Amino acid sequence: MRRKPAKTARVNTFPLLAPSVAALLLWMTVPLAMTLWFSFRRYNLLNPMLHGFAGLSNYRFLVADPALSHILLTTVFLVAAVLTITVSLGAVMAALFAISFPGRGIARVLMISPFFVMPTVSALIWKNLLMHPVNGLFAAIARGLGFPAIDWFGSLPLTSIIIIVSWEWLPFAFLILLTALQSLDQEQLEAARLDGAGPIAIFFHIQIPHMGRAISVVVMMETIFLLGIFAEIYVTTAGGPGIATTNLPFLIYQRALLAFNVGSASAAGVIAIVLANIIAAFLIRTIAKRLDV
Questions:
Q1: What is the pTM of this model?
Q2: Of 15, 149, 171, 225, which cross-links 139 as Cys (Cβ 3.0–4.6 Å)?
Q3: What is the mean pLDDT of residues 4-31?
Q4: Pairwise CA distance, residues 244 & 240, whole Å
Q5: Closest among 245, 257, 292, 252 to 275, alpha carbons compared
């Protein structure tokens, strides 16, 4: 006679999970709900008597501002430029560091060290020690070669920000891509060399395809953080000259803490959330297709 299998007791985990789920929902929804609420309100700290429902006037004020389109383009261009530089240079450096050479351990530590410098500190280093038009290292080199010194933050402000942020994020791309390259089959590389493939052919036809998924992950992770660049702009150019380096996070800061217009800042925040979600949805779909291959 066959014995009936013992019934497994089902444990009700809802009381254990409920507090964490509730805290997570509050963490996510309350700030978003408050941002939406204030974006439809007249809320200026300099004029507390002016209050009430504003409808879409905060959004109309932002959209009617001719600077908004320039700020959106600056935000997207800044992210795209840093992604292009960090991913391309990170792939090249990962391929170079995959080759054994004396002192590779020390060189690897030096390579990743900028990632551990706080954005504010790195911006101060670049502004005062490297890119300063009078006392900076680049100005001294230019004068030594007989060229005039460049006023980086006056003449090339957005390029300067891109250089600083790329210097900060290059180690991240390098680490992820180097880790991906370390899983590459060495017999495949040896077979390519025996067939006469040179370093450039190996890089483009073997190493780059092998790093494809890692590159997708780097692009998605960096995009999420690069959309919120603020400290480098605040320390070096303060969004200027004019609005040359003003991105969406800095626009929100200007509206909220310089103009004290909470309603307008909240509307700009909602626009930033919409832009981030559009880019994130595009990246997630692209990466999901690549991971399905």
A1: 0.84
A2: 149
A3: 79
A4: 5
A5: 252
